[in-house]
Design a protein that fits this description.
The chain is an alpha+beta fold and 417 residues long. Helix content is 35%, strand content 19%. Helix 7 packs across helix 9 and helix 8 crosses helix 9. Bound molecules: glycine (GLY).
Length: 417
């Protein structure tokens, strides 16, 4: 069945408002079947070993799972997964080829936690070093600190033998240029969504004007030399800067576990902006007694609820992985007084692994009907599973996009949350 995006979201919001925010959370899903994803498949078999990650890591799970099964360390296994997208110039949300800040400079964030030794490492705003997941591990192993940022983190990485390299691929540079030239008056300066006085545009430009704008963007993208098959991806990035990221948690047969999160952060951000990914307790948290969790999505929102730590504490106090994640999502909604006019511009996905191998993937919104949010899993069988969402439908683009997003702009094979 085809549903127009505006209609789909509108009815979802109406349903959520009418029925109360708990409808998609504990009432509808948890009470009936405490570990069932939206797909209807059973979540969380409790098998060990197991690795879970954001879906852009699915192609790297086989090697990491073999490594883990053969006795490899849990953090090393998790890093084997996230290093794949870090090294891939076509994944523009992580590492090499990540979309840059507003000045055209790629700045990367990462953190990790090693459950067996209860240690942590983190780096923020790192330039010129591709594998920041490994740099965060080096901070953990070779310093008495937990977090290094900016130039100091880069110098530390070079001292540890990491090569300096240009992380800005030609494609990402051209997408940034398209953004810069298109949004010269629309950027991240000024009050954000969380400002009490923020209001969405009240008089959206007519749909025809937006079609014309997209046409002009296509022409501009062609002039910049962006390949035809990348033009719609580039326009989507420009109109709706992504916060792509990858998280991975790994659990071995002995019950040891670790987690890692790495990202290039919000595209076209202010220089120096750190999201949730390098924040221990927000983008990633592992407690050897309980479980491991991580996040992708709106970093600012996740920092405010210490999402990964909140989820682990929820499980420590008896919630299932699904209940624990849903509670964290509801805290994000609470921070906006459950105002759907604001929540529709946010999204968040949590990847949750309990010490016994039970797991869940939850998200604020379902995603597009033909591209729902997914979690990737390997417990002997590699697969992707649809997350359980708090709200039906897909989030809106931010900054607000006042007409239905054309279908071709929603097709995006590269950036997969
Ligand atoms: N969640 C990634 C970021 O906001 O930077």
């Amino acid at each position: 069945m085809s549903i127009s995006r505006r209609g789909f979201i509108g009815s979802a919001i109406a349903a959520s408002v009418a029925s109360g925010l708990n409808e998609r959370g504990l009432n509808a899903q948890d009470k009936a079947n405490s570990d069932a994803p939206a797909s209807g498949q059973p979540f969380g078999t409790g098998k060990r070993p197991i690795i879970i990650c954001a879906n852009n890591g699915v192609n790297y799970l086989d090697g990491a799972f073999s490594f883990l099964k053969n006795g490899g360390d849990t953090l090393d296994a998790a890093i084997r997964v996230v290093k794949g997208p870090e090294d891939d110039p076509n994944d523009d949300s992580v590492g090499l080829g990540g979309l840059p800040n507003e000045e055209g400079v790629v700045e990367l964030d990462a953190c990790c936690m090693h459950g067996p030794t209860r240690r942590a490492g983190s780096v923020g705003g790192v330039r010129n070093i591709k594998n920041v997941s490994l740099v965060s591990k080096a901070v953990m192993e070779h310093t008495g600190h937990v977090m290094l940022v900016g130039e100091g983190a880069e110098r530390f990485a070079v001292a540890m033998g990491f090569p300096r390299e240009n992380l800005l691929t030609e494609r990402s540079r051209k997408i940034w240029l398209l953004w810069k030239e298109t949004n010269s008056t629309h950027d991240w300066w000024g009050p954000g969504l969380a400002d009490p006085h923020w209001t969405p545009p009240s008089t959206p430009p007519q749909a025809a004007l937006w079609k014309e704008r997209i046409h002009r963007l296509e022409e501009h993208a062609a002039r910049l030399g962006i390949e035809p098959e990348w033009r719609m991806v580039a326009i989507r990035r420009v109109l709706s800067p992504p916060t792509g990221t990858i998280h991975c948690s790994a659990l071995n047969d002995k019950g040891e576990m670790s987690g890692v999160t790495t990202t290039s952060g919000l595209a076209f951000k202010l220089p120096g902006r750190c999201g949730d990914s390098p924040i221990i307790g927000a983008g990633c948290y592992t407690d050897q007694d309980v479980g491991s969790a991580g996040a992708t999505g709106s970093g600012e929102e996740n920092i405010k609820i210490a999402g990964a730590h909140t989820i682990i504490e929820n499980m420590r106090h008896g919630m299932s992985p699904l209940e624990a994640g849903m509670d964290a999502l509801k805290r994000i909604a609470r921070n906006y007084n459950n105002d759907m006019n604001k929540l529709k511009f946010l999204d968040m996905t949590y990847y949750i692994l309990r010490k016994d191998g039970a797991y869940a993937g939850v998200s604020l919104w379902e995603g597009y009907s033909d591209k729902p949010h997914k979690i990737a899993v390997h417990d002997g069988t590699r697969r992707s599973e649809v997350t359980v969402a708090l709200f039906k439908g897909a989030s809106h683009e931010f900054p607000p996009f006042p007409v239905n997003m054309p279908k071709e702009l929603t097709q995006d094979s590269v950036y997969v949350k």
